[in-house]
Every structure is written in C-alpha cells, then in structure tokens.
Request: fold
Amino acid sequence: MNQTHADNAHAGGDQAVTLYGLLAEYQDAEALVAAARRCREAGYTAMDAFSPYPIEALDEALGIGRTRLPLFVAVAAVVGGLGGYFLQYYTAVIDYPWMIGGKPLHSWPMFLPITFECTILVAGLAAAVTMIALNKLPEPYHPLFNVPEFERASQDRLFLCIEASDPKFDAVKTSAFLTELGAREVTHVYP
Amino acid sequence: MSQAQLDQSVDLEALRAKLAGKQGRQYWRSLEELAQTPEFRAYVDNEFAAGAPEWDDRFSRRSFLQIMGASLALAGLSAGCTRQPEEKIVPYVKQPEYVVPGKPMYFATSDVLAGYGRGLLVQSNDGRPTKIDGNPDHPASPGPFAPQKAGMTFGAADIYAIASILGMYDPDRSQAVKYLGEYNTWTAFTTVMSNAAEKIGTQQGQGLYLLTETVTSPTLIAQMQALLAKYPKAVWTQHEPVNRDQSRQGAMLAFGEDAQAVYHFDRAARIVAVDSDFVTTGPASVRQAHDFAAGRRVRAGIAAGEMNRLYAVESTLTSTGATADHRLALSPAEIDRFVRLLAAKLGISVGQVEPGAVDAEFVEVVAQDLAEHAGRGLVITGEGQPAHVHALVHAINEKLGNHGPNRPIEFIEPVAASLDQGQSLRDLVKAIDQNLVETLIVLGGNPVYNAPADLSFKAHYEKVQTRIHLGLYEDETAALSHWHIPQAHLLESWSDARSVDGTVGIIQPLIAPLYNGKTAHDLLTVLLGEGGRNGQRLVQDYWKTQISGAEFEKAWRKALHDGVVPGTQRAAKAVTAKAAVDLPRLSAARAANDQVDIILRPDPSVWDGRFANNGWLQELPRPITKLTWDNALLVSPATARDLGAKNGDVLDLTSGAYRLAAPVFITPGHADGCMTLHLGYGRMRAGHVGTNVGANAYALRQTDQPWVVRDVKVAHTGRTHQLVDSQKHHSMENRDLVRGGTLDEFLHNPASIAKSHHEDNLHLSLYEPYKFTGTQWAMTIDLTACIGCNACTIACQSENNIPVVGKAQVAVGREMHWIRVDHYYSNDANHPDPNQPESEFQPVTCMHCENAPCEVVCPVGATQHSDDGLNDMVYNRCIGTRYCSNNCPYKVRRFNFLEYQRPVAESLQLMQNPNVTVRMRGVMEKCTYCVQRISAARIGAKKRGITDPSISAGGDEDYNILDGEVVTACQAACPTQAIIFGNMNDPSSQVAQSRLPHQPHNYGMLTELNTRPRTTYLARVRNVHPKLAAATHEEHY
Amino acid sequence: MEMPKRSRMQVLKHGHDFESVTHIVSAFPLTKRPPRGWFLAFGAAFSLMLVLMYSVGVLFLKGVGVWGINIPVAWGFAIINFVWWIGIGHAGTLISAILFLFRQDWRTSINRFAEAMTLFAVACAGLFPLLHLGRPQKFYYIMPYPDTLGLWPQWRSPLVWDVFAVSTYGTISLVFWYVGLIPDVATMRDRASNRLVKTIYGIMAMGWRGSARHWHRYQTAYLLLAGLATPLVVSVHTVVSFDFAVSNLPGWHTTIFPPYFVAGAVYSGFAMVITLVLPVRAIFGFKDFITEKHMNNMAKVMLATGLIVAYGYIMELFMAWYSANPYEQAVFFQTRWQGPYAWSYWSLIACNIIIPQLLWFRWVRLNPYVLWIVAIIINIGMWLERFVIVITSQHRDFLPSSWDSYWPTVYDYTLFLGTLGLFFSLLFLFIRVLPMISIFELRELVAHHTQEEAWHGANTGEVPPGTGAARGETET
Reply:
C-alpha cells in the first residue's frame, strides 16, 4: 500500500491523497546538517531530521530551542525534598509524637537522609517522564513508519523530512530542492 | 493418632453429658462412678493407646475445666473463676465478697524442701495459681527489712519454691492410678487395700513397711502414730537423700544427745562458713541469706562495726564462697585439718596437728577475729562434713560463747524425728533380705533412683511381694511398683509442715487436683480404715486437738490466713558440749595422681533430682558455672591440668565396685585434688524434660561415705559431651563493670570505690536533655548483697511467661531470661592465683536507659519510651530486625528466634500470667520493670484518686503511686533485698534513697556511652581483714 | 600507518561502521535459538535459584532461628550479603553516571552491561532486609502509610533511611537503564524479523524514531539523570554504612564508614564488572568494543578505590589507638587480630590490600586471565570485609558476660548461593533479550572515529558493509 503511494508520487500522478511530507536521505552527518541548514535558510520551518545517533549540530541547524525539561525537574526536586521532610515532621511531631531515645520530637539532623532520597527520587522520575511526555511518546503510529527505508533511521541512515503542513511546501519544488541539496533519494510520505 | 483424637473428643462429649448438671458436692462421687463407665474406660484407653503419656496435650481448655469439676461448684459465677476446690479456704488479702474476675487473690500456704516447710504466698488468677512468692509471715521466707509504706508485702523465696508452680502444671505428672502398669482406679485400690489391711491387722502389721521421706507434718506424724498403734509390728522407715544425719551424729558427739541448731546470722559480726553454703542450700537458706544480708547493708554513714565479715572455707566454689570477704579453697581432708587447727588456736584440745597445706596465717587471723568477737561470732559447717567436724565446730562455738539465747546460735529439739536415716534405710534393705517385708508402701520419694549405690535398692525392692508407690511422677520407683498412685501436688493438697525452727505452716490447696492425685494422708486413711475423711477434715481435726476448742474456728481461720500456726516453733534447748571430742586420724590429702575425692552436693537447680523435670530449673544457669541442662565434674584448672582433662571430656570414675562416667567442667576457685558432682541427674524416668540429663551421682554414693567419695580412680574415656553454659567468658577484661572496694576505702572515701576509669564526660548531646517529671521508675541493685542465687531469674520467668528454649537453643546463645546474674572471676594483689580468683555477681536486666540506644534504631517504633521512664516493647508492632539488640550495650534483649511459645500442653497455658502478653515467633522481648504490676498499681492509685504535687506532675494520668505499691517480681523474690525499685522522683522512696547523691557508691554501668541507665548499682564492699588485705581492689577490675 | 600503541589502547577497534556495530551487538538477542552454551549457563544459574526458593521456604516456615544468629550476634549472613550486593551494584551507576558526566568515552561499551548488573545486584540485595526480619509478613510496617494503629515509621532509624535509599536507588537505576535502552530497542524493533518480537520491542521503544528534537530532550534528560544518580549512588552506600556507624557498637561506631563504604562499593563493583565482562567479551566477540583500554582503566579504578579502602582500614586502627577507647581497642587489636575470627580479618587484608597491589603492573592490568583472578579475589575480599565488620564487632562487645560466637548454618549458605543464582539467571536473560552494549553510543564513537580518520587524511568512505556483516556472521 505504501509502496503504491510512493510509486504514484514518482509518476507525479494523482495528488488526491494528501501528502504528509517529503523524506530525503543523506549520505552522512555533514550532508544532513548542511541540508537542514539550507532548508531553514530557504524558510522551511515544519521539518525534522532523523538519525540513529544524536547529532548535536542539528539542534542549531534546525533551530531547536532549549527544552523546558530542566525546569520541570528542578520543580520536582523541590517538591520531593519538601514533601519528604514534611512527611517526617508531620508524622513524628504532629500526628503521633513519641519519645525516642531521649531525643526531641523534631530531631532534624536525622530527618535529612530521607529528605535527600525523596528529592532524588521525584526529580529522577520527573526527568524521565517529562522527556517522554514532551516527546509525545508513546506514539505507536507515525506516517514516517510507512516508508520502508525509514527503519534504517534507527540503524545507519540519516533522513531529513519536510512536512506538507509547511507553508512553503510544494511537493515538486521541495522535492527538487532536497535533491539538489545532495539527497540520495526523496520519498513521498503519506499519512 | 488423629483417629484417636476423634474418638477421644466424642467420648469427651459423653463425659460432659455425664457431668452436666452435677453440683460440686456430688462431683467427686460422680467422677468415681464415671471411672467405671464404659465411656471413661474407652476415653482413657484410646487416650493412652495413642501412646502419648501427656494426656493433656489434646486436653481442650473446656474439657479441662469440667474435669476439674470445681467449675461445677462455682458454675453460678461469671466465667473464669472456676477451679476452686469446694472447701472454704481463706484468701490472704481482704477477700472480695465475690471473686472478681481478673482480680488476683493471694493465698498463704507452704511447700516442703528436704522435709521442712517454707511459707508461700500464691497468686491465684480466676482460680488458677499462677505465681509463687514467699509468705512474709513465715519464718522461712522473710519479707523486706523495712516495712513498706503501702502495697502488698511479699516474702522472699528460693528457686525451688517459685518453680514449683511449673511442677504442679507439669503435663508429665502421673495422672492415673496404675496396677501392674495398667490403668486402674482409686476405688479399686481402696477396696484392695482395705481387704489387705484386714489381713495385715490380723498379724498386727507384721510385714507392713512404710517408706517416707523426712516428715515434719504434725498431721501425718499423728496419722503414722495411729497407724503404728493399730499395727504395732509395722515399720516406718524415713529416707531423704539430703538429710541431717551428719549434723545429728555431730550433735551426739558434741552434746551426747541430738539437738538442732538454729542460726541467727543477723546476730553475728564474724561468720566462718566451713564447707557450708548456708545462703543458697537447704530449707533454711532463704532465712539465713536474709539475716546474713541484714548485717551487710552498706549505706552512706554506716560505722565500721555495722558490717559483718564472712570467711568461707570450702572445696566447691559456692554462692557463699563467692559472697565471702575471704575465701580459702581446701580439699575435704584439708578442711578437717583447718577446723582442727582453728580449734587448737582457740585452745580446744585436738592433739598435734600439722598445718599441712592450710594457710597458717589465715587460721591465725580467723581465730583472732573470732576471739575478738566472742559471743558475736558464728561458725557453721555443712552437711557434707563428717560428724567430728560438726562436733568440733560446736565445741568452737561453745568456747566462744556463740551458743545460747540471743546469741547467734540457738539449739532446739530436732524438728523432724531424730533418727539415722542412712541406718533406717539399711535396716529396711536387711529386712527385705530376710523376706520380712510383705508390703512396702513408698509414700512419696523415689528410693529406686536416689538410694545409695551400695544398698542396690533396686534389686531389693523388686523382691518385695506387694509394692505400692505414691508419687508425683511415674518415676523409677513407680515403674517397679505393683500399685502406683498419682500424688497430689502440695498446691493441690491439704496438709501442714514444720519449718526448720519448728513453726507450723498450714498447706491449703489452691486448686482441685489436676490429675485427681492423692496425698499421703488419703492413703493412710485407707490403711486406717477411715476412708471417708478428706484432707481438710484430717488437718482440721488434728489441729482441733492442738488448739483450744472455743477459739478454734477463729484461730483456724487466722492460721489459714497467715499461713502459720502461732507459737508452734520449737522451744530453745540448753546443751553443753563435752570436754573433748575424740577425733579420727587425719586422712591423707590425696592418695595418688589418678585419684581424686568426689564431693557430692545437692544440685543448685534440681536439688536431689525431684525437680529434674522442671524446665525452668534445668535451663536456669547454675550460680557460678552458668552451666545449664547438665551436671558435670567441677574441677580446678590445676587439677584438670594434672589429669589432662579439658571441658567436656568424659571421665570414667571408679570407686570400688561403683562406676560412673561424667564430663569435666573446669571451674576456677574449686579446691585442688578433688571434684564436685551434683546429685539429681541421670534420671531414667523423669519425664520429657529431665530424662537422660546429666550423670547420676547416686551411682557413686555409698552409705558410709554419703557426701565425699574418697580416692576415686579417674580414667579418660576419650569421649566428649557437649556442656552448655549461658556465659562463656568470666573475665571482666579490665572493664569497670562491677565496681567495688574494701569497707575501709568506703568509710574513708565512699565515692572512690564506684569511680569509673573513664571520666564521665556525660550529657553531651546535640539536643536539649529531656526533662523527666512526675513518676519516674528506677531500680538499684546492691552488689554487696547479691548472692547469685537466681531467685530473681526464676521469679521473672514465672511472672513474665518466659519460655524454656531447651539445651540446643541455649547452646547457640538463645536463652530468654530477662534478668540474668552475670558472674566474673577477678584477681588482685590479694588473690594473684588464677586458680583461686575472687568472684563477683552482677544481676543484669534492662537498664531502661533515658537515652535508650535501642529505641533510636527501631525502624517501626516498636520500642519507645513511656512518660514514666520505661523503655517499652510493643510486641505486636515489632517486625524483628534485631537492630535494637545490636545497639544495646547491655545485651539484655531476648529474641524469639523460633516459635518458643508453642503450647506443649494446655495445662502450661493455664499456668501463664494473664496480664503478660505471650510473645510470638520473630519478636523481640526484654525486661519491662513488670509494667503489668505498675499498671495495676496505677489503677489502684486512680481509684484512690489522690495526687501529690511533690511527686507527680499533677497530670491527669499521673496519680501518686506510693512507695512499695509496685514490687517487681525479682525484687519480691530476692532473699537479700539486693533489688530496690520505685519512683526516683519521690524523694522519700527507697530507690531515691539508694541513688546518688544519697549513696556515693551508686553507679551506672557503661554510663560513658551516655545511655543514662535507670537501673544502677551499689558498688560491692568487702569487709576484708587488714591482716589479709593487700592493696586496694582498684586494679583487678 | 597506525602506531601499534594507539591501536592497542583505543576505545573502539576501527574499521567499524554503523551497520557492523549494530549487527554485532544486536545479533545475539535476535538469533532464533541461542547456542547450547547459553542454555547450560542459564540452567546452572536457575537451579541455584531453586536452592534460593528452598532456603527461603524453610526460613518462612521455621523462622530466622534456622540461621546461625543469636544474641549477641543478631545479624549474620543476611546483612553481610545485603551490603555486599548493594556494593556490587554501585559500579554500574558509577560507570553510567559519573563517567558520563566526566565524558569518559570508554564507558560507552560497558555501561549498559554494568547498569544491568546494578539492577540485578540491587534486586538480590533487596531480598535480604525482608528475609532477615523476624516477622517478614509485617515488612510493610516500615513503609509510611496511614495504618489502623495510627503509627508511622520511626524516622531516626537508619533502617528506614535504608528502605528509602535502596528503593530510590533501585527505581532511579531502572529508569536510567530504560531511558538508555529506548533508542536501542527501536533499533531492535526495526531489525527484528519475527512479528511478536518486533511488537514487544516496538512497545518498549514507544515509537522512538530518532527525531532530532527527541534526541535533544533525550540527551538533556539523560544528562540530568546522570547528574541525579551521581549523588544518589554516593548517598546509598553512605546510608548503608549508617546502619553500622549510627549504632554504638565498637567497630561499627566509626565516622570514617561512609567514605570507605562508598569506596569499597565501587571497588567491589568494578571487580564484579571485570569478573563478568571479560568472559562475555571473549564469548561474544566484543574484543573490538571492550578493548584493553577498558581493562586498563577499570583496573586503575580498582587500584585507586582499593587504596582508599586500605586507608579506611588503617584509619580505623589509628582512631582506635588514638581515641584510647578501651572497647574499640579491644575489638580491633584483640578480637579482630587474635580472636576466633582472626582468620577472616587477615584473609581480608590479603584479598583487599596485598594482592590487588599487582595492579600497579601494566601487564597485570592487560592480561585478561590475571586480571580476572585478581577481580575474583577482590570480590571475595569485599565479602570478607563485611563479614569482619558484622560478625567480629557483634560477637564481643561491651559486656564480656554476653560474648558468644556465630557459626552459619546450611540455610545461611544456601541463601547466599541462591542469590548468586538469582543474579546470574537475570543476567543471562538480559543477555538473551537485550543489546548488551549501547548501540547508539557505539555509533557516536564510529562517527567520531570517521571524523578522526578524515583528519588523519584517511579515506572517509564507508568501510564496505560486508566486512562488518561478515564479522557478525562469524561471531554468531
């Protein structure tokens, strides 16, 4: 099915089926980064790159801003810490005070280890969860998965994708542009 | 098995049906009928067909109550208060109009050791006797020195008395009449007996022999006399393994007639114990220890003369020796020599005596010291010494004027019949040889087991035509008897007994016989053909003849209430010693290197073997050795070296025809060239607990040398036996755990003897120290007074439902005692010889630290501090991390590693204290300062409703509990009042008075850890003689 | 054209491309039927695990009394093993987190494996605190939950700190490990032929597609996790050491415990990593990824931490002497040196201090066999260290009257062996189903290398995929 879509695209035949975008494969990281940068200069905004390993240069090339993730983690850390301490204070001093070993009810130095552990626990979980959430994962279906070659994206190939939603998008021109940026192959991606 | 159970339960129903609706009075009759019914036969049969002797294993509590029958008597009352015997007995405390469920009542009665009575105060919960203390009104079990301000007064007691409660509930006790080993009934027996009685009557009792232990019961003696009157040719033999034959002969030698000495240690300034363990051995020991301690209450401001001085000369290291200010370890032969030397020094003609191995200076000092305190000295010797030593000692005392009214020693007519028991047993055996004995009735006692070996009593006993045995257990004797009658325990019986000074205590039952046991009285009534009279009638009738009629009812009630019959103590008897005692030649010390003297002694735990099946006593660490579940050949390190023996090596002992194999246990402080072996072990038919434990010393015992078997050949067997002791290490490692010094040091600088080596830089804490206001419990233990008798441990075990774990568990260090008596050996300049060190006792229990380390580390808060300063355990919160134990520097916490409390028998559950939680597997436990007693006292105080601002914080909860209202179990039992407990915030309380600053020699153990223990100690003071004193005791700790 | 030294000591043998590394690592989990060897190994481990089941069964039926513990030695093997396993865990986190923060690229090829090891070690460790309870059925009393008694945990107890520390540690390690796995399971998803396998990997991968934006957040998160795990790993063994240091038992009550426990943990952890990695590397043909450089570095870490531990021992002794505390002196100079358990102390010194000095020699560090044996010895030594700390301190403390000895029973031993079984069972399962080495990080290395090549003027063209593939086939 996907295959037929792709074929139609090559034939430049019927455009009835709305395109998700164009997927261009590049030789190596340098080429990909270069292409990404050019597209961005050319004014494309709705685009993304795909690589089997993180390529830092892409962040700048695609204009990916700093993520809010650290903020979430910081807040979580504070909440965890305060929560941990409050739990101990409330239970040991307010809810059910006992005399233990001649120590005061609020023997704060002995409350610190758990406070610390709670901080780490909540922050750590937050880091993982926020990352997944911001990446909108789990995402079982994605149009790109329709492209047979795309499974190499997790192995040894590098791709650049310009989505149809981009205002400057034009199936033919964009495709040509990508090829001229040294794409090995440009594939039509259907949702 | 399960089948058997099934049938049994069915039959029980039938049984209940039979019993239903019967009133108490008819009950006894009904049970008689019952015995005949097929149901009952079937019940009994498959009960025992199952092969399990402990019938109450599967004895449901319900059926138990019903069989006890008293439930019917009191069926009208609310649940619980059931097993009262139907006779009227008088509670010790003011009796509520009705029995109040949950409110314990106390009854005065007596128990008997070696024939002599000791007063008991038995706590009864809802009709179940659960705890035994001494009866303060009874001369043998004195109460506190100072009368308490308030609360119940208990008397002291020894381990045998306290543990006898377990003896009563013992599921191994014999439970049915047996004929030729088959189950039979009391009625059957009575019919047979009364028939036999007629026949015997025709021949005036010819061939009828009765064998009893030492008897002091006036009622029983009266019955016996009646019997002997009826059957003039009948013979009454008395034999008790631990008797007073030697003292008797000694008195004969000295005075020409028998007289029994009564010792008043409180009147003695100088005491010389010649092989006499008077503080822990014998029926008078509690009294003696109490009086002895009265002369050593070292408190701030005492004068030099106010402390007595004890010299101990002995072979075995006993509690007395460990407590003594000066101790000399001598072999039996040398003890004889010592006494002669001492006598000679005091101008008594004993012929020419060489000092030999005896330390001449010691003799010199002792003689001089005694002379200086003529009239206020007391020389005592033990039953283990031969008659002439007793005679010499009498002579010495007489010479010094220590005899007489208001002197330390008074003489009375012997309380028990004055006869040579060894001889009377020999006569019995001779009679058997001559086939004179047709019927032998053994009223209590176990002669087949404990008769001296040379009589070969077993073989003789089997020759008797008709053998009848009355006993608590189906023991060695029962096994060889035609008829065996289950004996009622003293707590189930009516009787009476004379204490060592003759005072009579009435024995009243606390519960109807659990196993339908009979008393000697019952059995004699059958012989006398007056079957109908029950125990109460017998005793009462006898006393009607003694107490003037009109007043009787009142006097009788009072006697029952007080537990003693006033004015019954023996009158003093004037005796005068003969000019000279003719003495045998001194025996040589030690014949050959492979030969030793074996000293036989009653065991500090199982006495003569009668307590062998008592788990508490078997597991109780013996006073010095801390050995449990065994007896052993106690031997000095030096002699062990000579013999090449290590701990646990089994040695083969041969004395003439008599042989015995026993393991060695090395005990510093024992005299060289001799060994000690305790009686009472090697039982073959004691029960589940006591059978096959230890070595049977009776196998070596001979009538001509009952206490010291001379020149026993020793050989190695190559075998070893695992001996288990609860304390492996007896050196203090130079740690100042037990502190102390001499009386001089105390008088000059009291604080010095309790000084710590580590300067106590205490109370350094991150936190504000907690303010302890209101009632604050604390305990003080006086190390000068402690004699290591273990009464506290047993009392605690009884009070707090502490389980017995068995030898295997003790072997891996899991004993459960909440209070233990640690024992340390110490050497100093004065006692440089590690072979002969000094001894220190230190009772250790939970210190209830104010900064309790255990509480801090418990993850679930299962141990917390209460407002009144207790370190509480919350059993049902405990998850068993055992961290608290690791963090307890005193290691007083005990852990239920396995299910130790799994009920062996329902009867044992009935014994347990209803106010103390039974702990399950995996839970930590420890001393609670008897918190249940504190709660009871608090409830009382609340009812009273007074609050005293001077003591209490005035809080709603904090009512003023008066000093003495809370007495811990260990405190109550302690014969020397070494344990003091109370509210330390009450300035007038005894405990407050016994702490700093009032007592400068008060110290806490390991206070450098800043635990701030509530249990503290009074440093041990020794009243050493300047001539024998070396440097201070400082360095030996 | 290559200097021999460089080639010997590089992190990744070059001549590898994306395809080859991907293939080699992913090959084993994706093979249909693993070699008999794997079954044998797993079978052995699993039967040991059955021993664990048995031992635990008896324990629950009879109670902790089946062990050799008593009063005063109330803690026995259970606690020793607990500390030992936790310690082993630490290397994993250290490698994946701390070395990551220090940008040590050599960590790449071992971190996944080490992290797995951490998880399984923590799993084993976690068993013991539960099993050693007298009433394990009540373990939840330690958790803060509103119960009918109205009671809460007692926060001052190090055991409660333990619960929080260890569970936090377990959780974070798991998260960290999983996050690291996501891109690789995506790879597995895309390489798997079997539909079911594909689906499972697919679910785990959550639809990862290597988007640059995802990578950006991914790396931030990973960095943060590393940053959080680093203090955590230090805190965990610190807290474990508090179990002892907070108590007042001579030999436990020591302020130096936290640092030297942490060092000891890393020490034993690295020893365990080496013990496991060397065979794996030989069997699965990872010699190119886990090179001598790795052995060299890990050996150096062991040497360093070993020296810290040695310093700890010496400091203990010094403080005992200097403080003039008679109880501590008794423990260190009598009980441990001459007591009935002196053998354990001296063999611990031999295993942890003397023998590891071999690691000063380069040839020892580079010789897999010698290195492996040294590592084993260190593992034993570290177990002995815990034995000495736990047992000798307890069996003779303040009151000589309470002194007693401790001898483990068969149930102590089976429990320990059993957890080894559990550990290896989990490990073999992991090897079977998941990539043992982080593939995407290997790719980074490859990319990094190709640039290097470029700078060295070597040809930048791909190495023909054949080579890698061929190598892969020969290996599997």
Strands of chain A lie at 21-26, 47-50, 158-163, 185-189. DSSP finds six helices and four strands in chain A. The CA atoms of residues 69 and 130 of chain A lie 6 Å apart.
